[in-house]
Amino acid sequence: MNLFSFCFSILLKPVYKVYEKILENRVKKRKMPRHIGIIMDGNRRYAEFFGIDPWKGHNKGADKLEEILDWTNELGIDIVTVYAFSTENFKRSKEEVEHIMDLFEKKFKKLAEDEKIHRNKVKVRAIGNLNMLPKNVVDSIKIAEKATENYSDKGLNICIAYGGRIEIVEAVKRIIERGVSPEDITMEMIKDNLYTGDLPDPDLIIRTGGEVRLSNFLLFQSAYSELFFTEIYFPAFRKIDFLRIIREYQMRNRKFGR
């Protein structure tokens, strides 16, 4: 994103709103993905673009996720899994990590009390090595999970202190610990022992921020996911961008290796 394109998008906003409504009506007539994954990338670069502190970019990203949950609910998408914080992200500066952890604490507590979460019966779950997180964050996660544990209509899975490779290793370890011999281990066993073992694999994965890779996100689960990459920084991701991705997803012929 550059300054010209940003200013141009502001000028065209009324036109985009009309087109957005037309596009929304069209995609609603076709089959929706049931489960989408989102790599929420570009918060820091968004902050740098606007000359603000990095953690303010993360705040903007957290607000954007709330918008996206509104969009997915409107479209009838049942499950959203987002990559919020990887195990590698702990290598960032102490100040930035502390701000992010404080943001997680606040947002999980907010999810526990969010009227829309309860109205839409969204089950909130944190996915990852939660032992790596500060106690205050773990406590707020437990509050959100407890408040929504009886819901099953929709799901919001937040990958925090998460790494896809470690997830697979831990799944295999759990299988072996039960006494299963190596030759008897199946793909279904591994799938069932992942953090997402009770969920369908994501139909599509979206990555914002311009990078074209999965970066250790849902490596096993994404084998047949449709992948979409956009240069837009996550806080600037618009509903029209989301609808365009859904439209392209609906146009793809998913063969699952057949």
Descriptive report:
The structure is a single chain. With 258 residues, the protein is of the alpha/beta class. The protein has one domain (31-248): Decaprenyl diphosphate synthase-like (Undecaprenyl pyrophosphate synthetase), CATH 3.40.1180. 49% of the residues lie in helices and 14% in strands. It has 10 helices and 6 strands; from the N terminus they run ααβααβααβαβααββα. Strand 3 (122-127), helix 7 and strand 4 form a beta-alpha-beta unit. Helix 2 runs parallel beside helix 10 and helix 3 (43-50) packs across helix 4. The longest helix is centred in the first third of the chain and has 22 residues, at 54-75. It is globular and about 65 Å long. The mean pLDDT is 94.
| CATH architectural group | 3-Layer(aba) Sandwich
Order of helices and strands: HHEHHEHHEHEHHEEH
The radius of gyration is 19 Å
How many separate domains?
1
Overall pLDDT confidence: 94
Total E-strand runs: 6
Strand order of the largest sheet: 3-4-2-1-5-6
* Assigned CATH class: Alpha Beta
The CATH superfamily is Decaprenyl diphosphate synthase-like
Percent of residues in helices: 40-55%
In short:
With 258 residues, this protein is an alpha/beta fold. The chain is built from ten helices and six strands.
Main features:
258 residues; alpha/beta; Undecaprenyl pyrophosphate synthetase; six-stranded parallel β-sheet; 10 helices; globular
